[in-house]
Amino acid sequence: MVTSSEKVALQVIQQAIAALAKWAKFDHPPLNDEYPEVTQAKEILRWQPNIKVGILRLVFDSVNLSDEPKKEITKKNYHQLKAIDNDHKEYPDIPYPLDTEPSSEQQQAFKAEINQALGNLLQDDWGNLSLLMLILEKFGSCLSFGEADVALVDMARNTAGVAVALLHNPTQEISLIAGDLSGIQKFIYSISSEGALKSLRARSFYLELVTEEVVQQLLEKLQLPRTNIIYAGGGNLYILASGTEENQNIVKKVRQEFNELLLKEFQGKVFLALDCLNFPLTELKDKFAEHWSNATKNLAIHKSRKFAENQISEFIAPRHSHEPCRVCHRDDVETLKPLNSQETDSVSACGTCRSMFDLGSQLLGVKAIVRSTNKDVKNTLHTLSFEIGSGHIYYHLFKNWKQIDKDSDMVLLVNNWHLEHYRFKSFKNVVPLLLGNYGKEGKPNSENPEEPQGFMRAGEMAENAKGAKRVGYLRMDVDRLGQIFAKGLDEKQSLSRLTGLSRQMSYFFKVYLNSLAADRKTNIPDTIKQAQADDGKLNILFIYAGGDDLFISGAWNEIVEFAFDIYQSFRTYTGNNEYISLSGGISIDDIKFPLYQAAKTSGEAEEAAKGNGRDSLGLFGEVFKWDEWLGKQNFNHLGDDVKKYLHSEKLPSLFGVYPFVKKLEQQDIGVNYSRNFVRNLLITAQIQEQALEKFKEDKKTPEALGTRYYLHLPKIAYTLARLPKNVLEDSDFRTSLKNPYNAPYFRAIATWIELLNRRN
Prior knowledge:
The chain is an alpha+beta fold. Among the domains are: about 5-60 and about 95-165, no CATH class; about 180-365, no CATH class; about 635-760, no CATH class. The protein has 26 helices and 20 strands. The strands form 5 sheets. A 6-stranded mixed beta sheet has the order 16-17-15-18-19-20. A 5-stranded mixed beta sheet has the order 11-12-10-13-14. The chain has a 4-stranded antiparallel beta sheet with strand order 5-6-4-7, sandwiched between helices. A hairpin with a 1-residue loop joins β2 and β3. The longest helix has 27 residues, at about 195-220. It is globular.
């Protein structure tokens, strides 16, 4: 049965498809008379009758966090006219922006592609909200509507959301529902056991489904279609609804029921902060950013009073303690069982941890997820259940969407952009689920052939590493994301632009990172020169990749290179805006090193990078700006005192860490030469560091600067004299290594080369 809210949302989406069809010169079916709520919503968001589809400017260009008066944007970036498509590959290609408008030939080709998609629609398809929304997302994410940096898909979804919020709303107030799952770090990173990678990946996936279920509960109880979701992912959500007292009570009830579940399952480690902020509809267009910020701040109040609404007497009452679970350490479970039922000497674990371990074994290649009130569904790989209030909701996992009964309650298709799969003949109720889920398949377990093959294990990652057989762990997130959303767009801080920002960020971390890992050769920006030794699939695993951050493990050298790929891809994707950057931290560890400790170590490296003025990477115990690691000679990292001190020095041909490592790899200097070179570089670095200790109070005096930038010269000259003849003949290498601009990087260069040449 189609509800009135779905009819209203469908009409807006149909009108947006009609605008898309008009731009592509396609004859669409006639539209029905407009609902009054749709008319009012269009007036509020300024969807004028003469508004047209056009070429989309990059919304990231408008982000400015400077305290200086905002300057007019001189550099303009445009979206490629490229549909989000994975018809012929696992993940869609990354659509990096253009510095000029797409040509008329490119526009005509894109219009032809739209014509083909719309021409395949049957009469029933024009009433299929899920299908039409996916068409808008595929083709309308790179086209503007009215304003140059507002995407058609964002204007359409927001207008539909506002129109639905106007239904049965005598108060003429709108409610912004904000949610945040707190404790994610503690839930994911604090486990310790065998198979930890598998369990962590499962916990990350579980939290994605928790967020999805919170959203679904809200939509069902508030009678809202999915057009009312502004953003959902990474433990965060924003939804538009009517600002009625009844809706406030519904939000409160959902919050209480979910926290009862989380309290019971995870002993308070994870908490759902959920709140709704009401404001007049008249303030939606020009004051939405202020209300967005206030709604987010309100969540902090709930976080400071965790579980205050719930019955926690049973949780805090005196009780018998039992043998603690060897994975999550809870001690309230009377009977523990082996974590891995296939192994007799497996550690003892609680039911939740056993379920997570089993789930982790099944996640590779999951293509579809069925949400249902039915516990038993045929051909399922694994089933997760949520006890919400007095009922149960089940999520059934499948490797192939064709295995599923088309009459299923609701189907989530993972990273699936195939229009055919969203038609009524396939499923009655289907939505896409974007998921950062890249992982390479592991080898069969020779000791337990019955065990599902699953993702590559840590030991396999280490075996595939170059040099030292180590595993790398990368944590990374966007710098100052809260400020970007709160004030980055200044007077352009509208609902549609904020929606576009969050959507584009989500695409990068949940969609395009998969593409970069699976097919680097196609998806790396043209500006990146370094290349992997192998263009095949990387030996890495996405443990978590959410709305603006990630945690990835893999062969240590591939993790380091992939971190550089991510950074440069992200900077290109966001138009190289100086205010949008990433900071990251990498730890490199033995396979037996506890994963929760590796997560902590990489997190500390990331925090050190944030403390370096952001836009930095912590690696090998060092922290430098990304440009220093990569060898980009802009020298913005140097203070005015240092620039003045070194002004007479000629800039080196090779600069930074990475260029020296690559040069020495290409020279193939041999193990013995490499060991001597590394040892001398480390000695030089140690001499520098010890000499600089006495300048802690003032590191900018001429004596201190001389120590930092010139003390290395005698030792470096000695080191160079003992390198092979082919290296000594490379004048760029010799002069660059002695150059004072490279004095800070000896320890990082030496450590990297030592790991690459180590033989276990």
